[in-house]
Amino acid sequence: MTDTTGAAASDRPAAPTQEDPLVASLSEAIGGPVGERARPHRWWTPARVILALAALCFVLGMVQKAPCWSEDWSDGQQRYARMCYSDMPYLYVGRGFAELSWPYSDDDQTRARYEVMEYPVGISYFAWAAAWTTQALHGFPDVVARGSRAVGDLSADPDIIAERTDYVAVSAVLLGAATLVATWFLIRTHRRRPWDAALFALSPVLILNGLINWDLLAVATVAGALWAWSRDRPVLTGLMIGVGTATKLYPLFLLGGILVIALRRGVGRAHAGRRRHVWEAFALTTLVAAASWLLVNLPAMVTGWSEWKVFWTFNSERGGDLGSIWLVLNQAGQQITADQINLASWIFFGCWCLAVLLLGIAAPEDPRLAQLGFLIVAGFLLVNKVYSPQYVLWLLPLAVLARPRWRDQLIWQAGEILYFASVWWYLGGYLQPGSGDQPGFYWIAIGLRIACELYLIGIVVRDILRPRHDVVRRYEPACPPGQLPQDRHKADVLG
In this structure, how many other beta carbons lie within 10 angstroms of the beta carbon of residue 42? Predict the structure, then answer.
């Protein structure tokens, strides 16, 4: 398809009310789709509107946590009944941040008092820095004196309870900034489709899950990697992937999508210069990702090698946990060990990645990185040992660019919303049958969540195999997002 409407029309952003059937039908309540001759507002550009919507929705996410906030995160049952749980306040004391303990300290006294942070280093650094900021707001209380008290006494101290509440607020402000950064990257990834980022900014799962943990830090790096790749910047792409992998493991899987693109465009009858360029881009991205990951991890490795390894050993030794198909099987009577789950999960994931590779090579046109990244990360989550409610955020930026259609996004997220409610009710004991049997409704919620995810996977696979269904290609068919027509040689290589 070739755009023949002229330069001005070719630069006009895609209007959701004109090209998304669901948005078009809803717009009838306010006068119908925007007209062809409509003039954009000089100040309220798409970027500013979407960023404002993202800020508003993030504030709504903070309001959703208000019942726990008003109780200073002290009511153990309230967090489940009102579905306002967050890991942050409980780790403030539980991991030593109330004493400003370095997460990877190998000090014997510190390790005797506190467990090691079981998260990758990027999250641990952030949590530690947020603790410093919180205590600065409280005038830097005497943390040395706290070291002489029992940890249980610290948890009940009114001053520390106040700090803990402010700690969540500080973390929320910083995570809100990360959300805006992620939104900005998504706005700019597709030059003519900035409104696709509204699917991220207005996402129900962003409102509900954004403050459960620190996953939004990695989300921002994934969005940045998608933007950098669309701009033919392999060094910046690698930096985003490396920092993201140091924060959460899953950004690493974007390299798999880039590898598929390289294999598709770097073999066969392609021009030698084209093959060399795409393999250089892949190699440079991978090297920069590895170097940046190592650089971010280095402080933790040097100060506490054993403590740094806890994340890796913790995940290899844990069994089937919340949200996973393995938990359902175990509760149904199939006793599967952690080693068996490890083996089965990696075999499935390896086969899944091979299928994505074959799909990418067999596709009639080059798949987009967001599509490939979404499929790989989704396959990883389907068989992961734990599928916490906030893990949906891992897929969110990939999903909204892979399939920017409101209907499909809402169908997928409906399963996530059902699971969000179910997991808290399950933990609170509200789904336990009176007979004492296993919580079958929770199993149903897990199954429906997986079914909705498989639905979106199927739609993305169809778009790859039948590119005419890919709405992004209708607006930028000749070159990838961010590339000008005169840059078509680079566009042919990276995409």
Answer: 6
250 and 218 Cβ atoms separated by less than 8 Å: yes
Residue 274: what pLDDT?
A: 61
Q: SS in 3 state form for the chain?
A: CCCCCCHHHHCCCCCHHHHCHHHHHHHHHHCCCCCCCCCCCCCCCHHHHHHHHHHHHHHHHHHHCHHHHHCCCCCCCHHHHCCCCCCHHHHHHHCCHHHCCCCCCCCHHHHHHCCCCCCCHHHHHHHHHHHHHHHHHCCCCCHHHHCCCCHHHHHHCHHHHHHHHHHHHHHHHHHHHHHHHHHHHHHHHCCCCHHHHHHHHCCHHHHHHCCCCCCHHHHHHHHHHHHHHHCCCHHHHHHHHHHHHCCCCHHHHHHHHHHHHHHHHCCCCCCHHHHHHHHHHHHHHHHHHHHHHHHHHHHHHHHCHHHHCHHHHHHHHCCCCCCCHHHHHHHCCCCCCHHHHHHHHHHHHHHHHHHHHHHHHHCCCCCCHHHHHHHHHHHHHHCCCCCCHHHHHHHHHHHHHHCCCHHHHHHHHHHHHHHHHHHHHHHCCCCCCCCCCCCHHHHHHHHHHHHHHHHHHHHHHHHHHCHHHCHHHHCCCCCCCCCCHHHHHHHHHCC
Q: What is the pLDDT of residues 429-443, one digit of tens each?
A: 998 876 667 788 999
Cβ proximity of 227 and 398 under 8 Å: no
- The candidate with the shortest Cα–Cα distance to 189, out of 223, 219, 158, 161, is 223
Query: Rounded to two decimals, what is the model's pTM?
Result: 0.91
pLDDT at 438: 79
**Which residues neighbour 257 within 8 Å (Cβ) at sequence distance 6 or greater?**
356, 367, 369, 371, 372, 373, 376
Long-range Cβ pairs for the range 443-448 (8 Å, 24+): 443/328, 443/331, 443/332, 445/418, 445/419, 445/421, 446/323, 446/324, 446/325, 446/327, 446/328, 446/387, 446/419, 446/422, 447/328, 448/415, 448/418, 448/419
- 395: closest CA among 180, 192, 228, 215? 215
| Per-residue pLDDT at 434 | 67
Q: Rg of the chain's alpha carbons, rounded to an integer?
A: 24
Q: Averaged in consecutive runs of 10 residues, what is the pLDDT profile of the chain (495 residues)?
A: 42 72 71 62 84 97 94 88 95 95 93 93 97 96 91 91 96 98 96 93 97 97 97 96 97 96 71 69 96 98 95 89 94 90 95 97 94 98 95 98 95 97 94 76 96 98 95 64 38 40
